[in-house]
Amino acid sequence: MGNHAVTLRVAPFVRIECKFWLTDDGWSGSCEQPSIAVQAGTFEHVKSEMEIALGKYIESLLRQPQHINTTEAA
After folding, report:
1. Helix (H, G, I), strand (E, B) or coil at 20
2. Residue 6 and residue 18: Cα distance in Å, rounded?
3. Of 9, 49, 50, 74, which has the highest C-beta tally within 10 A?
4. pLDDT for 49-70, tens place per residue?
């Protein structure tokens, strides 16, 4: 019996500390590294917005061209 490849999306667990606080207009959230700030009407929504923003940030890092150091490759 031959081997079969399966392609799956994997959502890795990455712990990033973010701060959330209540404002007059709803909820705000921010991360220091990477520098991201979000706002929403409810805590659940601001947390979701932060997760989306962090995901987009990480995806943008993965899309950047990889520069291989020739001394490391040798």
Report:
1. strand
2. 34
3. 50
4. 999 999 999 999 989 887 766 6
Q: How far apart are CA 32 and CA 18, in angstroms?
A: 7
- Could you tell me which of 40, 4, 36 has the C-alpha nearest to residue 21? 40
Sorted by where each begins, the domain ranges of the chain are 18-63
Closest-CA residue to 14 (of 40, 50, 65): 50
Question: What's the confidence (pLDDT) of residue 72?
Answer: 58
Span 23-45, pLDDT tens digits: 999 999 999 999 999 999 999 99
Three-state DSSP state, 60: helix
The phi, psi pair for 28, rounded to 5°, reads -125, 155
For residue 39, give every residue at least 6 positions away whose Cβ sits within 8 Å of its Cβ, in sequence order, or none: 23, 25, 26, 27, 28, 29, 46, 49
